[in-house]
Every structure is written in structure tokens, then in C-alpha cells.
């Protein structure tokens, strides 16, 4: 039976089951760093839920997974309230959906013709927001549920890619958002050490990175090979770039590593060309990605 064959009562029952299943997987992934299904299987559950809610909007509630981001902060960590919500990305799964997305952007901006779009690898790691005041790193937080995350400042200070002090000229308040990740080769070496020590191995680099950062003992984090890409901003006291492309260049100038390869595209065809290029490169990239 296809989704279009569901009666309201059948849709209600399936919706309730999907909500519970997705919530369980969100907790396993975001709080416990121990996913039970693949990203592709999770995306399939979300697409099915989205389809039901599109067909039967009366089933949408404030507790729907579509209205949430990540999962609530875990116990044991101090909570951090994000001044600007730290949201997640929506997905497109075909060139047609990509064209639709670009069309929505054009209508929102009230422009016609090509628009500049930055394309870059979507790193499969732990989202993190770094807050600088007066050029000094004062706080690091996980995304959590988008509104409230976990304070991981002490742990993040051990990550070499994270600048602890920025050069003169940066905004007085600057939040740099990005991804904490572990390289593939370093992940393999870590698992080898785990086996030698008789400890449990990690499922994948993303969970190894997340599990390494979300430790109450920062010495454990210090012993793990972690990296950070900064590619977005949260609260900023003064603008410092006119475009996303310029922002990447400025962050790099200030000492942040940027996820490469990146490209400045102007239409769906160029984005698809870039996407196909990255998919060919994907097995040889030093880090895991889960899209573009």
C-alpha cells in the first residue's frame, strides 16, 4: 500500500509509530553517539513522515520530529542557550528537488536568473558553536536541540584546529559554527588502540568524534585526534563579510580550517556537476561526508 492509499486513521497510526521510532533514533544518534540505523534508513523514515504530514497536516503537532533539531542536552553537562538557534539542514534527493529549492530562494529574494551558491562537502561530525569575545575563545557548545546545547568548552580547548585567540580586527562578539570530526586514518588507529586495550570500538568516525568530545573528563578528549571545520556564524556583533564565499575566506584568514573542495556555483547544473565530482572523490577524502 502506498502512502496515497492511507486513510486518515491509517495515517494517524503510522504517524504515531514513525514519531516514536524517529525520536528513539534521534536520542541514540545525538545523545548516546550510538546510531542503530544508517543515515539513509533514517532519511527514509523522515521522508515518509514528511509525506504523511504533507497529506494530513492535521496530524502535525509541536512534538513532531519535523519541528525539532537534534536532541536535548545530555545530563552531566552544563547547558548553553544559543542566542541564535542552531538549526539543521533540510535535504534534497534529486535534481528536480534541487531546482525547486533554488526556485524558492529566487522567489524569497525576489530575483530572476542565476544566483551565487556556495557548495561544499557536508562533514559527518559533531556540530559545534565557538563563541569569541574580544578575540578570546570563551565558550564552545554542541547544537543540542537547536535552542539549548551542552557546554563542551574545556574539551574543545584541546582541539588543535580551534583557535584560542583571534587576530586584531575581528568582531567583539563572534560565534563560529562548524563541525568537529575525526580523520579516517586516525579513526582506524584509534579503534586499533581500543582493541589492544580491550575496550569497545567505535562504529564510525562521526561517533568516535562525538563520543570523544562529549566526555566529562577532558583528558580523554585531549588523547583523541580531533579536528574542526568552521563554515558558518551565529551571533556576530558586526558584519565582516558580504557573502558566504567571502566569509569562508575571512575565517581562513583568522586561522580556521575550511572544508574543501568548495565551489561557487550559479545554477543547479553547476551544483550537480560539483556534487558528482565530490561523489567520485568521496572514497579518497580524508574525512567522512554525508552529502554536499
User: What is the CATH-assigned architecture of the largest domain?
Assistant: 2-Layer Sandwich
Globally, the shape reads globular
Give me the side-by-side strand order of the main sheet: 4-3-6-7
The total strand number stands at 8
**Which CATH class of the largest domain applies here?**
Alpha Beta
Q: CATH topology of the largest domain, which one?
A: D-amino Acid Aminotransferase, Chain A, domain 1
Estimate the mean pLDDT confidence: 89
Secondary-structure class: alpha+beta
**Range of helix content:** 25-40%
Order of helices and strands: HHEHEEEEHEHHHEHEH
Give the total of domains: 2
Radius of gyration: 20 Å
Proportion of residues in β-strands: 15-25%
Low-confidence stretches: none
In DSSP terms (H or I, runs of 4 or more residues), the helix count works out at 9
Could you describe the largest sheet, including whether it forms a barrel?
Answer: 4 strands, antiparallel
Which homologous superfamily in CATH is the superfamily of the largest domain?
DNA ligase/mRNA capping enzyme
Distance between the termini: 33 Å
Pfam families: DNA_ligase_aden
Coiled coil: 8-62
GO molecular function, one term: DNA ligase (NAD+) activity
Keywords: Coiled coil, DNA damage, DNA repair, Ligase
Explained architecture:
There is one protein chain. The protein is of the alpha+beta class. It has 2 domains: about 70 residues, Helix hairpin bin (Helix Hairpins), CATH 1.10.287.610; about 170 residues, DNA ligase/mRNA capping enzyme (D-amino Acid Aminotransferase, Chain A, domain 1). The protein is about 40% helix and about 15% strand. It contains 9 helices and 8 strands. A 4-stranded antiparallel sheet has the order 4-3-6-7. The chain has a two-stranded antiparallel ribbon with strand order 1-5. A hairpin with a 2-residue loop joins strand 3 and strand 4. The longest helix is centred in the N-terminal third of the chain and has 24 residues. The radius of gyration is 20 Å and the shape is globular. It starts with 7 loop residues before the first helix and ends in an 11-residue tail after the last helix. The mean pLDDT is about 90.
Amino acid at each position: 500500500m502506498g502512502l496515497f492509499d492511507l486513510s486518515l486513521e491509517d495515517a494517524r497510526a503510522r504517524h504515531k509509530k514513525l514519531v516514536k521510532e524517529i525520536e528513539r533514533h534521534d536520542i541514540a544518534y545525538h545523545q548516546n553517539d550510538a546510531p542503530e540505523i544508517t543515515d539513509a534508513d533514517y532519511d527514509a523514515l523522515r521522508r515518509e513522515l514528511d509525506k504523511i504530514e504533507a497529506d494530513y497536516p492535521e496530524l502535525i503537532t509541536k512534538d513532531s520530529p519535523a519541528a525539532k533539531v537534534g536532541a536535548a542536552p545530555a545530563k552531566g553537562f552544563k547547558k548553553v542557550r544559543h542566542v541564535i538557534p542552531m538549526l539543521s539542514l533540510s535535504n534534497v534527493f534529486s535534481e528536480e528537488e534541487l531546482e525547486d529549492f533554488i526556485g524558492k530562494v529566487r522567489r524569497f529574494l525576489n530575483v530572476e536568473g542565476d544566483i551565487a551558491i556556495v557548495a561544499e562537502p557536508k562533514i559527518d561530525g559533531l556540530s559545534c558553536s565557538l563563541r569569541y569575545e574580544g578575540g578570546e575563545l570563551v565558550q564552545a557548545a554542541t547544537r543540542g536541540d537547536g535552542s539549548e546545547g551542552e557546554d563542551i568548552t574545556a574539551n574543545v580547548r584541546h582541539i588543535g584546529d580551534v583557535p584560542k585567540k583571534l587576530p586584531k580586527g575581528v568582531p567583539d562578539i563572534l560565534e563560529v559554527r562548524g563541525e568537529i570530526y575525526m580523520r579516517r586514518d586516525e579513526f582506524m588507529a584509534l579503534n586499533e588502540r581500543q582493541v589492544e586495550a580491550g575496550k569497545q570500538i567505535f562504529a564510525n568516525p562521526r561517533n568516535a568524534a562525538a563520543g570523544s568530545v562529549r566526555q566529562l573528563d577532558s583528558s580523554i578528549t585531549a588523547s583523541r585526534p580531533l579536528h574542526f571545520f568552521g563554515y558558518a556564524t551565529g551571533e556576530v556583533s558586526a558584519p565582516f563579510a558580504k557573502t558566504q564565499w567571502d566569509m569562508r575566506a575571512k575565517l581562513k584568514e583568522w586561522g580556521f580550517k575550511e572544508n574543501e573542495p568548495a565551489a561557487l556555483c550559479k545554477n543547479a547544473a553547476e551544483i550537480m556537476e560539483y556534487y558528482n565530482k565530490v561523489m567520485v572523490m568521496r572514497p579518497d577524502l580524508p574525512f567522512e561526508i554525508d552529502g554536499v
